[in-house]
Amino acid sequence: MAELKNARLDATADIITTICKLFEGGMFVDLLSEDDLDDASRHDLALRRMFCDFLAASLLTGLARAEDHRETQLQHYLTCRTHIDSFRSRLETQLIRLEPDGAPYTDSRHKFAILLAYDFEATARLKKWDDWKSIIDECALANDIRLFSTIADIVLSTDAQSESIQSPLSPNPLFPSISNLHSNIPSPLQRRSKPSGT
User: Fold this and answer.
1) What is the spatial distance between Cα 106 and Cα 127, in angstroms, rounded to a whole number?
2) Which of 7, 45, 152, 188 lies 20 to 30 Å (CA to CA) from residue 197?
3) Rounded to whole angstroms, what are the CA distances from 58 to 33, 80, 85?
4) Does the predicted TM-score (pTM) go above 0.90?
5) Cβ distance 91 to 112 under 8 Å?
């Protein structure tokens, strides 16, 4: 029974790995040439690439969680972070073009909030403690208390060095105080400000 279960897990892992390779760099959408597209179509293409990155990161996170082999697990997390960075690099430009009250805008922000949780999990498993602060800053702008609940669970399940987790009362805490949650931190999650005089 155990051997059958392991065989199924291996087969699932192979399928997910193949799918993620197809998504790398947005392979499906990269079959289109941007030179042949108008501005609106290029914008739509960028959103489709972001969806590919989101799906790949989600699949890789699930694959990493189910992986028993340490080195393979870490490789999944590394590749996952690559897709998250790709999503992040396109997000700010795309949000500027979208209506703040529209579904695509809300959906993009929601997907990025999910990816932030995955990114924090990956950094914890990879022991990239120095990356935690920047992710926390982006989480603060997401204004979603569930993100911090997830992050707290991740911190408690890791073997982070004590100096990596500072008290909320310290001058430069890893976890921002409540008064800093709405501070003006540059991030793709930051909403566009309205033009003056409107």
Assistant:
1) 31
2) 188
3) 27, 8, 13
4) no
5) yes
CA–CA gap between residue 103 and residue 1 (Å, rounded):
46
Separation CA 187–CA 190 (nearest Å): 5
CB atoms near residue 144 (< 10 Å): 17
pLDDT tens digits, 43-70: 888 888 899 899 999 999 998 998 889 9
Determine the Cα–Cα distance for residues 47 and 125; give it in Å rounded to an integer: 29
**Residues across the chain:** 198
CA distance 91 to 67: 30
Q: From CA 195, how far away is CA 198, in angstroms rounded?
A: 6
Amino acid occupying residue 14: D
Report residue 135 as tokens. Answer: 């992710």
Contact 112, 87 (CB under 8 A): yes
Would residue 127 be called left, alpha or beta, if left means φ above 0 and alpha means ψ between -120 and 50 degrees?
A: left
Contact 141/192 with Cβ under 8 angstroms?
no
